Amino acid sequence: MPEKIATGDLVDRVRAGDVSAAGLFHDRLRPVVEATLRRLLGPADNEFEDVAQVALIEIIRSLGRYRGDCAVETWAAAVTAKVVFKQLRRRKLERTIFERQAPVDNVADAGGDVAELRALIRRVIGHLHEMSETRATVFLLHDVFGYDLMEVAAIVGASVSATQSKLVRGRRDLHRRIAADADLASALAPWKEPT
């Protein structure tokens, strides 16, 4: 007969590196992960098993952040949902990239040749590297990769209001840096959104 361990004790044993407890932990949470995936992705999703494995790995990796404020099953479902949202964002980004069929000539028509555009991107990346890492990360996750504010907050481990503040300050910081870089500001002027 399999060993019956209280969930709290099981979590403690997994955190302590008990390999036998890890197997039991997996067996206990796998149905929660699968149920969450069925609700969010559907059972026929062609990456169902892969996403389930990623979710279980993320649950183990982030177990140190589990504070016990809710049932471990509830927490595991939330971690799984975050993995699914990240997966869906990745799929959306991949579709956008692969569906875009703008030839290189069109990039040149948009205001410069490819080498010039790459140089501009490198300069923007340089400014991002000079910023606070957290502000730059929040800016990239939200404004570039399209995560919503709640997802970004979960990824960076901050409250939504703190994340919003970091986003506003990050945008302001990047815009200030670009404005102070006269050549970059001039080159990006044609793409500036009207106010």
Task: Characterize this entry briefly.
The protein is mainly α and 195 residues long.
Detail the topology: elements first, then pairings:
Elements: H1 7-15, H2 19-40, H3 48-61, H4 72-99, H5 104-109, H6 114-130, H7 133-144, H8 149-156, H9 160-180, H10 182-188
Helix pairs in contact: 1-2, 2-3, 2-4, 3-4, 7-8, 7-9, 8-9
- Assembly level: single chain
Tell me the distance between the termini.
69 Å
- The total count of helices amounts to 10
Query: What is the share of helical residues?
Result: over 70%
Instruction: Note the beta-strand portion.
Output: under 5%
Largest sheet, in brief, is: none
How many DSSP-defined strands? Answer: 0
Structural class: mainly alpha
Ranges where pLDDT stays below 50 over 5 or more residues in a row are: 100-111
- Estimate the mean pLDDT confidence: 80
SSE order, one letter for each helix or strand = HHHHHHHHHH
Q: Whole-number radius of gyration?
A: 22 Å
Shape: elongated
Describe the 3D structure.
With about 200 residues, the chain is an all-alpha fold. About 75% of the residues lie in helices and about 0% in strands. The protein is built from ten helices and no strands. Helix 1 crosses helix 2 and helix 7 runs antiparallel to helix 8. The model is unreliable at about 100-110 (pLDDT under 50).
